[in-house]
Amino acid sequence: MTTASMEAHIKDPDFVLRIDNLESFYGPIMAIRGVSLVVPEGRVVTVLGANGAGKSTLMKTISGVMDPQKGKIIYRGTNITGMAPERVVRAGIVHIPEGREVFPLLSLEDNLAMGAFTRSDGAKAVQEDLDMVFSYFPILKDRRHQQAGTLSGGQQQMLAIARGLMSRPKLMLLDEPSLGLSPLLVREILTIIRRLNREQGVTMLLVEQNAKAALDVADYGYVMDLGRIVIDGTAETLKRSKDVQEFYLGVQTDSQRGQKRWKQKKTWR
Amino acid sequence: MDILQLLVSGLANGCIYGLIALGFVLIYKATEAINFAQGDMMMLGAFITLGLTNTGYMDLPFWIAVPLAIALMGVFGYLLDLIVIRRMFGEAQIAVVILTIALGFVMRFAAGTIFGHEPQSLETPYAGQDLRFGGVVLGVDEAVVVIATVALTVVLFLFFNRTKLGVAMQASSQNQLAAYYMGIPVRRVQSLIWGLAGVTATIAGVLYASKGSIDPSAGLLGIKAFAAAVIGGMGSLPGALLGGIIVGVIEPFASRYVAAGYSQIAPYLLLFLVLVFRPHGILAQVHRKKV
Where are its TM segments located (chain B) (predicted)? Predict the structure, then answer.
């Protein structure tokens, strides 16, 4: 399925983010080989794929931590390709990195304050958002004076999302929020992500290896392999797709045939 | 009384070591490099003040010269990072360390060329005055050292914990990548930390020069302050001050009670013991990353 067919699926083609033919290197390796995708306003879009598919590089290139070699990133009609990270954050895109990356020796509260670093709309507005964030993550409120490094993995993930929210983002880039969490916690975090999307109107671009969990919350999905988008479609379509089921959802119909199909499909590239 | 007198004079020296050590720790935390020019920045700050206020030079009032010198050295530190150190971004840490050693030499010879290599003393309004408490004699210069150190510590504490920029400096040094993701301009923050290191070095230099005399090789004191920083715990600001005070207090006691040739070893012997028994320093701030 192509971008054109996606526009047919989602009636409102009001894109927050449009990526055109992006190429990006991770060291000497070309990690992204001409990726094009769109993220419509107010939706949850997921990018699936195995380790090393180029998902994280894609996210880092959007948030400006890495510069692309070729291609364009258009955010709400503005070209943000190669823009410095602090300007990208000010523009309304926040990146929740893989592996949480909290400030370990700062208190939770100071971590959240750093999320609001780029804001200049006054202490009152920041305080209101702090209350909003605590209403989604009550556990963080109880521990707000604790050092972030002492939190459990799940709590650190919550803190990382909460810290990102403090920048008042229009678009949130979530890199593997389920990494290293128990299935129960994965469900909890993804439910909160969906709620934030519905209630706070934050558009989400969610990168996941856990395809099943991601497709449960997403509206639309892209599948990446070796730096390219190989399949895309609505979450429902992808869940039903034989290829996605076999390669990413771990559903095995007939392992012999599956292997053959896999080899056949390899010729995609 | 004798012991008290030794303690008091050691304390004043220790505060100066502590302030230089503070500069080491600030830059180490921000960039994970060690600035071996920190002692020379202290010397340079002292000479700039001297050049502004001494009668042979510009003859400005002391209380105008000091803030002016602090501001100049703050800008100097900022520009040093912006123009020189930042170009080493991505190079091995050892390259940055060697660069700072070279910069130290440059500062030493620059100061020697301008001010000469003879020791000079900084003219202060409080030179030569004494305070007496019972049998303990405390020079006003020594009292100023202690008071200024305490005041600077309080200001720095409030800055790092209560202001957005201060917390951002902590954040950038704890997790640089995350700081980028939060939109903190990490490189500018690092330059500001170099500026701050220039400020603390100048304050240390003014206090040092007002207590005795200063010559262009005074920066070698930085080695002792580095030992103090390691003793206190290389990642900890309170540790730097504590380490400085410990080294400062040990010195007069060692020279009083230990044979002359050996007393100089005392701070380094302590460094050795700390490294063996408490390798991260007394007030270590260690965070082991969990998987």
Answer: 6-28, 40-57, 63-84, 96-116, 136-160, 192-210, 225-250, 257-277
